[in-house]
Design goal:
The protein is mainly beta. It is 3% helix and 44% strand. The strands form eight sheets. Strands 13, 14, 15, 16 and 17 form a five-stranded antiparallel β-sheet that branches.
Length: 359
Amino acid sequence: MGRQASRGGALLRALSALALAACSNAVTAAPDGGVRPACTFLNPITFGADPWVLRSGDTYYSIESRDDDIWVYRSPTLSSFKRNGVKVWSAPDTGWNRSNVWAPELHNVDGRWYIYYTAGRSGPPFIAQRSGVLEAVGNDPQGSWVDRGMLYTGDDTVSFSNNIWAIDLTVEKVNGQLWAVWSGWEENRSTDRTPQHLYAARMSGPTTISGRRVRISSPVESWERGTELDLQEGPSFLSNGPNLFIVYSARESWLKDYRLGMLRVKDPRVALTDTANLQKIGPVFTGSGSVYGVGHASFTTSPDGREPWIVYHSKVDTLPGWNRVIRMQRFGWKSDGTPDFGLPVPSSQALAVPSGECQ
């Protein structure tokens, strides 16, 4: 969840500058005064939250919301993906999406670019959040965009007046069918201290949810239930050959025990709304003694396509709040085809840049 809390100020900006990834032919100074080997980087990559990184050909695109604007970045390297940023959209002065813009995602669906985002009335409490979609005018993610409006996330497909709270919407084409998956409430409430579940629905196109929403997962396991609130949010699709997964965040986003869980789609030929076809696994990624509140991940590959990478955010300390930074690390696959994310890599540990970045 990308609630509009402080994102750190000078301390986080200094931290991100020190940790900015680089690939060079010389030894690089490390923040602790030592040296960092060439062709390595340090976490965190930058300050921020709700990271979304997409590889398209030889280019990495990333996206973020900032002050109710949406920015798209492009870079030839994954280890320094937050470069060459362009503001592509600003919230309107009036309307449902005039404030609280967060968690945008950039998708290419059938050769056209779309941005899915969350917005709503000013809070707290954040009780009016809905999901919207933008469509690119041309084929440039840093070009012009058209607002295609709110997506329907209610219990029928008739009246937007019955739309229900929804955040972190993502899309994926599975076996030829386009699906939307998001975090939502069972019904609209007057408090944002409301349990969140994962919902799925069919789409007739990138800008239209056409099927009835179905709750596909709830925070019922001990490892995903919080001390203050039970929630599931930030779903993201991950594939490994014929294996398909929906990775999501669980527990409270503002506390140190935020972590990742996962739904395994047993048979991608079966509708995502068939809950008997979904196997819950978790936790699959948790914090450590020095990295806290890991969550809201996206996935991509190295420039040569040989390595899978997870990009995620973490808290800057153990105190309640949404001051966060963005990290990334390589992960692997288990013999059963499921991802093995390991443990969060400490900030002091130099990591080799993704394969194909540095010769």
